[in-house]
Design brief:
Elements (H helix, E strand, L loop, with lengths): L1 H18 L18 H25 L5 H30 L17 H7 L1
Helix pairs in contact: 1-2, 1-4, 2-3
């Protein structure tokens, strides 16, 4: 739901950013308010709170007494591994979406990027 919300907001942001563009190298800002991003951040924040608390509670309740700190470390390690997988996914999307002299989905200038496609892919 959060990525769907992010994709829809990005579609509107691109629409507002491109209406002010005259050239293909548009550097102008979008007139869309930053508060349009609140729903996606609320959804991501709520899901992370429920997931992290539940995961940590599971590790602490199922681990033997001598391994509670190890299980907490394992929980944090799984969180860091998710961040590495996320970075790998971004690298893969950049590589595959920018082949054959076609601009990719994630560029330096967000007004020329297609982050909406990336969000919908997620």
């Amino acid at each position: 739901m959060a990525m769907l919300s992010a994709g829809v907001v990005e579609c509107f942001r691109l629409k507002y950013a491109r209406t002010n563009c005259v050239t293909t190298d548009c550097e102008s800002r979008s007139s869309l308010s930053i508060f349009w991003q609140v729903p996606q951040y609320v959804l991501i924040g709520a899901s992370e709170v429920f997931m992290y608390v539940g995961q940590l509670e599971f590790f602490n309740s199922q681990a033997p007494d001598g391994l509670k700190s190890f299980s907490s470390a394992l929980c944090m390690t799984s969180i860091s591994l998710r961040n590495y997988v996320s970075s790998l996914l971004v690298t893969i999307v950049i590589k595959f979406s920018s082949r054959d002299n076609i601009f990719g989905w994630i560029l330096g200038n967000l007004n020329n990027s297609r982050l909406d496609r990336f969000y919908f892919l997620l």
